[in-house]
Design a protein that fits this description.
This protein is globular. The protein is of the alpha/beta class. A hairpin with a 6-residue loop joins strand 2 and strand 3. The protein folds into two domains: about 140 residues, Alpha-Beta Complex (DHBP synthase), CATH 3.90.870; about 90 residues, Threonylcarbamoyl-AMP synthase, C-terminal domain (Rossmann fold), CATH 3.40.50.11030. Helix 10 runs parallel beside helix 11. Bound molecules: adenosine monophosphate (AMP) and magnesium ion. The site of adenosine monophosphate has 17 residues, from strand 6 and strand 10. Magnesium ion binds next to loops.
């Protein structure tokens, strides 16, 4: 059920129910962080392993401070620049945050989402919200209220329009004086390094697969997906019946073998490509294709994040 009525959403959350929550990244499946039954219901509803911790969404930096023991200087600096916005900080939790939320880790993931309706909702609540993406585990992330409603029709989803960033938040942790990148996301490495200097990159899929968020397969459409710099070369090598190609900025050549040609950003703007990524994959997923071939993006700025999502969508 999709609604624009904040009071319904607020009431549901107070009652301990889950709701679909718009943010600038993707839609979340949200619940009261302090209600352990509601938090458990998130894992069950998404079919998400309880070893995969949840991000806590707060109204402001001071609300974030209330959940942690210590706010490192560089974390503070990044929060001042990027909040509200798609940057998640991993910080040492205090007792108010349960182990269920953090998958038994001493740290909690926190951010202030940059969405006007959701910020006003958070300001009307006396608890923060845990909100992983509102998709069943491993499926394509939702970027509209309709996507969420397609996955979870029995819960209320707050309509906040199409997500502006369209990919999940960037996640960073802190080790001593170092900033450590843990997940590529809607804020580029370049933008973070412009604030705090060089950061360590621990996002490689070859890193410890037991670390939260390092699950290789994710974001997958129901048919096979291949990512390549050379879609036409790939086309000559496959024998699928119904094929779609998702191009970065232009359809390079029309081929009779291809049923669908779509483009992520005709102007080659990486932010627009990110915004359109999941919505376009949802569209292609509904076309009954046997194979989606996606043109790999240039490996800088948000191209890195988009390629990361595509590589995971392609993992079998
Ligand atoms: P999602 O909400 O589905 O975008 O996923 C949340 C992701 O945040 C997880 O998969 C982890 O990568 C990361 N995360 C959340 N909490 C923590 C934490 N305490 N420590 C490290 N990473 C975390
Ligand atoms: Mg997710």
């Amino acid at each position: 059920m999709i609604t624009s009525d904040l009071s319904i959403i607020r009431e549901r959350l107070i009652q301990g129910d889950l709701i679909g929550l718009p943010t600038e990244t993707v839609y979340g499946l949200a619940a009261n962080v302090f209600n352990s039954n509601a938090v458990s219901a998130i894992f069950e509803t998404k079919n998400r392993p309880t070893s995969n911790p949840l991000i806590v969404h707060v109204a402001s930096l001071s609300h974030a401070r209330a959940l942690v023991n210590h706010f490192p200087e560089k974390a503070e600096q990044l929060a001042q620049v990027f909040w509200p916005g798609p940057l998640t900080l991993i910080l040492p939790k205090n007792k108010s945050v349960s182990q269920l939320v953090t998958a038994n880790q001493p740290n909690v993931a926190i951010r202030v989402p940059n969405h006007p309706t959701t910020l006003s909702l958070l300001n009307q609540l006396d608890f923060p919200l845990v909100a992983p993406s509102a998709n069943p585990f491993n499926r394509i992330s939702p970027t509209t209220a309709e996507h969420v409603d397609g996955y979870f029709p029995s819960i209320y989803t707050l309509d906040g329009g199409a997500c502006k960033a369209g990919v999940e938040s960037t996640i960073v942790g802190f080790e001593g004086d170092e900033v450590v990148l843990l997940r590529h996301g809607a804020i580029s490495i370049e933008a973070i390094e412009a604030q705090v200097g060089r950061i360590l990159n621990r996002t490689s899929p070859s890193a410890d697969a037991t670390l939260p968020g390092q699950h290789k397969k994710h974001y997958a459409p129901s048919c096979e997906l291949i990512v390549t710099y050379e879609p036409l070369f790939m086309l000559s090598a496959v024998k699928h019946k119904k094929i779609g190609i998702l191009w970065y900025k232009a359809v390079k050549i029309k081929s009779l073998q291809v049923d669908v040609n779509l483009v992520l950003s005709p102007t080659g703007d990486l932010e627009i490509a990110a915004k359109n990524l999941f919505a376009t994959l949802h569209t292609m997923d509904r076309m009954g294709l046997d194979l989606i071939i996606v043109e790999r993006l240039p490996a800088h700025d948000l191209g890195v994040t988009i390629n990361d999502r595509l590589d995971r969508a392609a993992t079998k």
